[in-house]
Amino acid sequence: MLRDIAPLDPERHGVWVVELRVRALVGEAACVYALTGSLGNARRLVGEALAVATAAGEPRLEALAHGQEGLLHVRSGNAGAALDAFDRALRSVEPSNHRDLAVLHINRAAAALEIGDLAAAVRSNESALAHAQAGQYDRYAAFAQLNLGLARYREGDFPAALRELEAAAARQPGGPDGWSEVSRAQILLDAGLVSEAEQVLADAADLFVTDDLTGERADALYGRAQCALLLRRFDDAMRWAAQAARAFTRVGNSVWALRATVVRLEGRLADDRERAGLSRSTLRRRAERALRLADDGEAHGPGTGRDVAVAARLLAVEWALLAGDVARAVEIARAVPRRLSSDSPLPLRVHHRSVLAQVAFAQGDRRAGLRAVRGGHQILADHRARVGSVDAVTAAAAHGGRLARVDVEAAMATGRASAVFDATERGRAAFAGAARVRPPNDPGLAELLVQARRAGEDARELAAGPEADDRTRSAQRAAESYRLQEQARRRSWQLSGSAGSLVPRPATAAATVDRLRRAGTEEVVVSYLLTERITALRADGTGVRSVNLCPAAELLELVRRVRGDTEVLANGLIPPRMRDVAAASARRSLARIDDLLLAPLEVSGALYVAARGDLLGVPWAAMPSRAGRATSVNSWVDLSSIGPAPAPPRVVVVAGPDLAAAEEEARLVADVWDDALLLAGPDATCGRTGAALEGATVVHLGAHGRHEPDNPLFSAVRLADGSLYAHELDGTDLSGAVVVLSACEVGRASTRVGGEPLGLTSVLLRLGARAVVAAVAPLRDDVAVRVMPRLHASLREGLEPAAALAHALADEVEPVPLVCFGPMPLVSP
């Protein structure tokens, strides 16, 4: 095109020749940079375009050239130069030229965001959005809203950021593009929603390969490397980070190439932590490599290169500590800022505190180490308070794992059980307890859940249909239900809320011992640590001691066997002889678990268990030594004070469909209480049940239950009109309620990245329930009909839920997989 228009004289043919020449040069510059990464050649073309526009006296076209120069600087990582270029461009544009003003403000906002000037980024994005809307440029409005979402997230407002991104996607003609998806994934990743972010990035990377957009594909690879790092797939992290660095280098973006190199080194360091036998010289060489990277980052100035320099120095400190060179680690750490600004990425700020703690602990300064640990937990707490939903709160724990391990390892080095207890609970409490306590009240979310429920019911009914294509249609409706569930999850992340005073304080050994001593009972608190071996921290009114118990592999195999046996016992159709064999096998395995986990601890009274992972799936109340004794279980030591049960109680009893004895069980339970609300048959809908839960003090749900390991917030009980999901209870106030789930396996939980358990039971506890009685394995109907009325009778008599469950199970011959979950059941004085 340039050859064709070169002979044309603007004075003879008009100004359109100048405009065509300028736009052709600017367009060629963009293509040269995108395809070759040559910033010099691209800027030469832009300079030629600027000369043509200036010679013709066309400020509008000068602005076009300045704008393209700014965009090249943004893509190459020089945000300061980009801001200058965009400001020159903005001075040359007519106020009525909404298109060019929108584009320039969008790009200026991106540059401001790059150097951390959030206020300027928000102002530019808002200006861009106003101009785009005035000119009805939907695509530019979408870009402006996308960048506004990124700025909101950098301000710390996760729900608002995702709302802006969803709105941006809705504005884009043809749906979201790859760049907007990469931005959304980066926010999900920083929030801890790692698996979700990786899936978005995988799709985006494929899109960029198709479009041959090297720089944008590099962004996707960079994000995937970060995801793999959190998922502990270190080889993938290093490979993708190296690919991202090469791609950034090809397009001349040296700053982001350095950032990708930081991620590659993070993967190498994480792998080194788990490998034995590395020489000190190797570890020292890696520390020096990280320091060279830090110097490269600093060469880019205090803005764009700051985070690279800090992150690389933190890695160098850790490698020096791995090499046993504390003096060198201290020396390197002196060059690290003592505080990072709030606009630094959340993972970097937490890592910074973790490394400062390691240095202090290595020097023997435990007080300074704990100060750094608590600072890291405060950063996480501030983030947690902003995110709102249960899903997002538990996801954010992904960024706290390393900090918690540093704390526990340092505590173990002291040899004091009380220090290990305190460190363990600091890590566990960081993301335990309530999420938001204000109901979302979002009609769009409610409609998505209704549609998901309807599709799920269609799938269930079609699966039993007589027609040849019923199974195919069932699978299609099941897939549709899952798709709607995922949409509901994404929408819930956009809803704000506050946990207020329900954000927990971690239990300490001193407070726990004092509580037990003042109670004057024989209750024991046991906190289990699950690594290659299982360690117990046993607390009673006299103190805390540590007990080394057994290899984890042996115990986990026994837990697996018990689960298999209880599944057989739950099948009412198997022959009595087979049931007897399964019962005997379950009793043997439970007795062995009892010997491994409890016998060495000498627990003669009530027991409160705090555990994570597979230990939460143990049917604790069914162990021989726990017969007739109260046993409570939780994922952390919750010292929340429990007042007396309110009188008169407000009782809700619900019976789901297609269970032979559900309505009989519900009537027997309701008869125990005065004026219980009984919902059965067509009255037992999700809507009526959800409304009845608000303000209830005792809730009984007898229904088919299902735990969804891959999507635990959609674990559910089935009611008259379909599944009541754990997800749709988010925001319900269950403060002080005792909830009994007479349903199969809804006491189970899936462990998220970061260690947080998630399932129906954990959601109910996060909503304030004082106790949840639920099954960790299938529960047979006839067992439920016998046990549940006895349980409620004991609750009415004033027994604490764990004691009531122990009394209800006392006469059962076969092991029953019911567990009482909740806070420490000591009534406040």
UniProtKB/TrEMBL annotation:
SMART domains: TPR. It comes from Isoptericola halotolerans. It comes from the Bacteria. Pfam families: CHAT. Residues 588-809 form the CHAT domain. This is CHAT domain-containing protein. The lineage of its organism: Bacteria, Bacillati, Actinomycetota, Actinomycetes, Micrococcales. SUPFAM superfamilies: TPR-like.
